[in-house]
Amino acid sequence: MDIPTFAEIAQHFATQYQENDFMQAAVIAAPVTALTYAARNLPKQLWKTAQRLFSIEISFNSDIPSYDDIADLITKEIINDMFSLRYNFDAKETWDRHQDAAVVESRGLQAGYGRHWGMFRGTMVIVNRFLEEGNQTASFKERMEITFLTRRRKVVREFAKMLSEEIGRGGAEDAVNVFLNRCDYWNRNSKLPLRRMET
To answer: Are residues 138 and 101 in contact, defined by beta-carbon separation less than 8 angstroms?
Structure first.
């Protein structure tokens, strides 16, 4: 039995291709499908690459004590009301020792879940707030990512300095934070003012 040459194999496939409509469709569709599949993640990959090259990102988790203060500050100082129409109403139950009762403390509106646009000292900022399911628990944690569309670290340092100053003004020196255990993490429940030594 003779082994067919390359020319004979090529001639056989060329004949099949001309006579078989299904084969024509398969030969055209296979590479197009492969390219489409490969390209479907291309915009996302390009965006991630551009984000890594041209931006600086800061993340905050809701299990840090000052998370609500940070969310308030970002809502007031960064987020643009024209481009951000999704908000959360933030109210928490705290213990008031003067009234000796639980009271609802309203902090007003905060940036809601999803993506928001804003400016910080002339730099475009993207704020993304979302929920993360806690590991092996029914509780949810929040996460806030702030992306500065710049490579200038000075802007981020100014933002961090502003955060530190504003959070420091919240009465941290004359109050004690009370934390509540949420099974897998501690969450700040309220603040109690310090008593004077003579009392």
So the answer is: no
Residue written as tokens 């007031």? 76
Whether residue 21 is found in the same domain as residue 76: no
Task: Specify if 104 maps to a domain.
Answer: yes
- The mean pLDDT value for 16-43 works out to 76
pLDDT tens digits along 74-121: 888 888 777 677 777 776 666 666 777 777 666 677 777 888 888 898
Q: Where are the alpha helices (DSSP H) in 40-95?
A: 42-54, 67-77
Structural domain range at position 34: 6-39
| Interatomic CA distance for residues 172 and 100, integer angstroms | 21
Based on the fold, state whether residues 108 and 172 are members of the same structural domain: yes
Q: Distance between CA 131 and CA 90 in Å, rounded?
A: 15
Domain count, the chain: 2
Higher local confidence (pLDDT), 189 or 153: 153
